[in-house]
TrEMBL record:
Residues 58-209 form the SGNH hydrolase-type esterase domain. Coiled coil: none annotated. The lineage of its organism: Bacteria, Pseudomonadati, Campylobacterota, Epsilonproteobacteria, Campylobacterales. PANTHER family: SGNH HYDROLASE-TYPE ESTERASE DOMAIN-CONTAINING PROTEIN (PTHR30383:SF5), THIOESTERASE 1/PROTEASE 1/LYSOPHOSPHOLIPASE L1 (PTHR30383). This is Lipolytic protein. Keywords: Signal. Gene3D superfamilies: SGNH hydrolase (3.40.50.1110). Residues 1-21 form the signal peptide. It holds the Pfam family Lipase_GDSL_2. One of its GO terms (molecular function) is phosphatidylcholine lysophospholipase activity. SUPFAM superfamilies: SGNH hydrolase. PROSITE patterns: PROKAR_LIPOPROTEIN. It comes from the Bacteria.
Length: 218
């Protein structure tokens, strides 16, 4: 009898372990599941009918954190950056482009690379983003993805360089403006410490240099 009870308990434990293993199935991370992304995306959607703006700044946190209207001294520039965003995330929110937008400045891709995506996938998504704007006759300005700082350069900067080379080649072949801030902010292919506090995001000095570089396109 005791043997039967122990056997039953062992079977129950094993069965429970199987169920636990099933429940621990890993779900692929997607920015689209992030609350901040959802909140910003929904806000952009309800503002899509706003016809005041003619220029869009599109990207991730590096775009999101900037006060573009003040940096550019232009109240017709809208900020469409979302912290943590990826090329896939951008593709899923291009339904909220305002009708008066005439040009877009895009910088996206670093989060894809930091999340382990291959350059092929990032590049292909980027081309889909560009096509969406070109189909609407919106002038596209591709901004090179910025290099990461010293503490994480080895893991990601080679892929960033490869992505930028592909984007620059595509831009040249398709008469698209390509703006490379890396010679200014990362001349040695590493984001300079004087422009960042965390080796990824930018400080005020860096944003000022960025704004000065793109003012010529307005």
């Amino acid at each position: 009898m005791r043997t039967k009870i122990l056997s039953g308990l062992l079977f129950a434990v094993l069965l429970s372990g199987c169920n636990f293993a099933e429940k621990q199935e890993v779900v692929e991370w997607k920015i689209q599941n992030d609350p901040y992304y959802k909140h910003k995306k929904s806000q952009f959607e309800v503002l899509a009918m706003n016809e005041k703006y003619t220029t869009m700044m599109l990207g991730d946190s590096i775009t999101d954190e900037a006060q573009w209207d003040e940096l550019l001294n232009n109240d017709k520039v809208q900020n469409r950056g979302i912290s943590g965003d990826t090329t896939s995330g951008v593709l899923d929110r291009l339904n909220s482009i305002s009708s008066n937008i005439q040009q877009v400045f895009i910088m996206i891709g670093v989060n894809d690379i930091m999340r382990g995506k291959e350059v092929d996938e990032v590049y292909n998504n980027y081309l889909k983003i560009i096509k969406t704007f070109k189909d609407k006759n919106i002038k596209v300005n591709i901004q090179a993805t910025l290099y990461i700082g010293e503490t994480r350069k080895a893991d990601f900067n080679p892929k960033i360089e490869e992505l930028n080379k592909r984007l620059e080649k595509y831009a040249s072949e398709n008469q698209i403006t390509f703006i490379n801030l890396n010679p200014i902010l990362a001349p040695q292919k590493v984001l300079k410490k004087e422009f960042t506090f965390d080796d990824l995001h930018l400080n005020g000095t860096a944003y000022k240099l960025w704004a000065n570089e793109i003012k010529k396109y307005f």
